[in-house]
């Protein structure tokens, strides 16, 4: 066996192991998620086309749908607002415990908590607490496209629901706590932050790979943690590549006196120059480096695609 063949086989074996242990599997996209609804007696068009991922528990009916971003849609003369995370419990003909969908009623936005199909009447009932309204089922026959709902609403003088601030505000929050803005990429879709506890949750438009110097970092769609001055603890949603392995970053600590930022992985840590995180990074082509192909590239057998 030639040396090149040996290297390729070794690379494939290591890459497969790494992919199995570290690469996040992608959930099916919108076609399958929307097609699940008719199986439960509900129209496909209740959820827009911008589904990025979803989870569904067959035993309990609990589901969570992640959209690529927040979304406004007109259903007939009714304007609906979809948050980037929609949760609830599905049973035949109904969705209960719903969160993440609002509808405009006059000049007020109300949260939809329950959806009930009435096939004998050809309607779908939307409940917001003790208020309910039935709309023609035909309004939801097709999977809707996120469009210019927000722009049209403003033109009509309608008040839009409160939306979490976009990435600029999320990144600008970090320096207030002694951390560089560039720890989070530019693809923030929404975020929440509790000033009392420091707990935060950031939703990105999609998973993301970023090079910081010679270090490749992978961001999951949701990044969570606890923020205090100069530090982030209880962190989840960020992985860094160490040799052939992807390791989860659990804490970040700024050392301004040393001009570094320390990344903690359990009891292991590594400090990088703080200057690498001054600018907010853009998501790049780092995805090409996960799995066996990434190992082969790192062995110099294929060119490395950098962001």
UniProtKB/TrEMBL annotation:
Q: Which UniProt keywords apply?
A: Signal
Which branch of life, at top level?
Answer: Eukaryota
Record keywords: Signal included?
yes
Quick one: signal sequence residues?
1-19
Q: Which Pfam families does this UniProt record tie to the protein?
A: DUF538
Listed PANTHER family:
EXPRESSED PROTEIN (PTHR31676:SF96), T31J12.3 PROTEIN-RELATED (PTHR31676)
Q: What is this protein called?
A: DUF538 family protein
Q: Species name for this entry?
A: Oryza barthii
């Amino acid at each position: 066996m030639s040396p090149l063949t040996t290297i390729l086989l070794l690379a494939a074996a290591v890459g497969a192991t790494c992919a199995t242990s570290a690469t996040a599997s992608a959930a099916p996209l919108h076609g399958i998620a929307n097609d699940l609804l008719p199986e439960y007696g509900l129209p496909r068009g209740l959820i827009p086309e911008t589904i990025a991922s979803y989870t569904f528990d067959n035993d309990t009916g609990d589901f969570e749908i992640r959209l690529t971003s927040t979304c406004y849609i007109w259903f007939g003369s009714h304007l609906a607002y979809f948050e980037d995370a929609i949760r609830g419990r599905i049973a035949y003909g109904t969705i209960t415990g719903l969160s993440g969908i609002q509808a405009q009623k006059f000049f007020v936005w109300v949260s939809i908590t329950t959806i009930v199909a009435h096939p004998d009447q050809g309607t779908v009932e939307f409940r917001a607490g003790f208020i309910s309204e039935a709309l023609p089922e035909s309004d939801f026959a097709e999977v809707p496209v996120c469009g210019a709902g927000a722009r049209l609403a403003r033109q009509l003088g309608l008040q839009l629901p409160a939306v979490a601030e976009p990435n600029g505000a999320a990144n600008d929050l970090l320096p207030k706590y002694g951390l560089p803005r560039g720890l989070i990429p530019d693809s923030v879709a929404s975020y929440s932050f509790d000033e009392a506890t420091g707990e935060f949750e950031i939703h990105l438009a999609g998973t993301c790979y970023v090079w910081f110097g010679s270090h490749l970092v992978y961001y999951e769609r949701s990044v969570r943690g606890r923020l205090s001055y100069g530090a982030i603890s209880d962190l989840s949603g960020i992985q860094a590549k160490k040799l052939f392995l992807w390791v989860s970053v659990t804490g970040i600590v700024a050392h301004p006196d040393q001009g570094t930022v320390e990344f903690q992985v359990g009891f292991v840590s590594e400090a990088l120059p703080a200057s690498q995180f001054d600018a907010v990074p853009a998501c790049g082509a780092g995805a090409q480096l996960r799995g066996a192909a990434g190992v082969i590239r790192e062995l110099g057998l294929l060119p490395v695609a950098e962001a």
